[in-house]
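Field log, afternoon session.

UNIT: design team B
ACTIVITY: writing a sequence onto a fixed backbone
BACKBONE:
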């Protein structure tokens, strides 16, 4: 199983990832103008509630949490976690860093471990390779540092070191952000709730239960040429079309 397949399994099966995103309480008393500003800025404003628009507006007003240098480092780390391959683009190409920035604003408890972890990376880069920017290191040097923090302790009751906890949180955010992006969903092969054609119960299933399809109903219900029409019923509850 390759790295991307392993990450898919982590996303689908790990309850820990979904547990990160339990709803957080937010105040709802915001000026009407703020809601209108959010509607102008947010591409999916038509699908969001007033409270959601107001919360988004506060995030937009706050601005990015991470600096440009931090975002550059996050881009590189995201691409180490999910690199580009024949199945899809790298994580950074799907806007994962923007997602992580949003999550840091939405969940303030993420801010300290993420920012402290990025600071640790800078110090570690300087101490090991005399470069205080992780992104200035060679790919081999970057991987050497990441390998030291990429694995949780074998004992599940043992608390991970702060750099390890940082990378674990980051990896969960990257995976969640990537596989909820358009490209990530395509990578998973997820099609969601899409209209489909249905020909009724299979004949072998009907026969197994001693049931036969009534031609009148089959003609009315299993006609793909009229599938967009709204059914009509008479006063006695009989299906007309």
């Amino acid at each position: 199983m390759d790295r991307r397949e392993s990450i898919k399994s982590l996303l689908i099966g790990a309850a820990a990832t979904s547990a990160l995103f339990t709803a957080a309480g937010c105040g709802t008393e915001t000026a009407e103008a703020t809601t209108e500003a959010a509607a102008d800025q947010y591409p999916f404003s038509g699908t969001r509630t007033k409270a959601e628009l107001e919360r988004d507006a506060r995030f937009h007003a706050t601005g990015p949490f991470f600096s440009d240098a931090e975002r550059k480092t996050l881009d590189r780390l995201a691409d180490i976690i999910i690199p580009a391959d024949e199945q899809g683009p790298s994580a950074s190409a799907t806007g994962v860093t923007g997602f992580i920035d949003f999550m840091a604003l939405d969940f303030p408890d993420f801010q300290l471990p993420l920012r402290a972890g990025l600071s640790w990376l800078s110090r570690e880069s300087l101490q090991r390779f005399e470069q205080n920017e992780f992104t200035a290191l060679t790919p081999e040097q970057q991987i050497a540092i990441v390998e030291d923090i990429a694995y949780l302790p074998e004992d599940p009751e043992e608390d991970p070191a702060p750099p390890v906890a940082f990378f674990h949180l980051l990896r969960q955010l990257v995976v969640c952000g990537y596989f909820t992006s358009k490209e990530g969903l395509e990578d998973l092969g997820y099609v969601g709730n899409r209209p489909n054609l249905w020909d009724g119960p299979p004949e072998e299933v009907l026969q197994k239960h001693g049931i036969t399809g009534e031609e009148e109903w089959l003609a009315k219900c299993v006609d793909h040429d009229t599938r967009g029409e709204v059914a009509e019923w008479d006063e006695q509850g009989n299906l007309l079309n």
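LOG NOTE: The first helix runs from residue 3 to 13.
NEXT ACTIVITY: expression trials, pending approval
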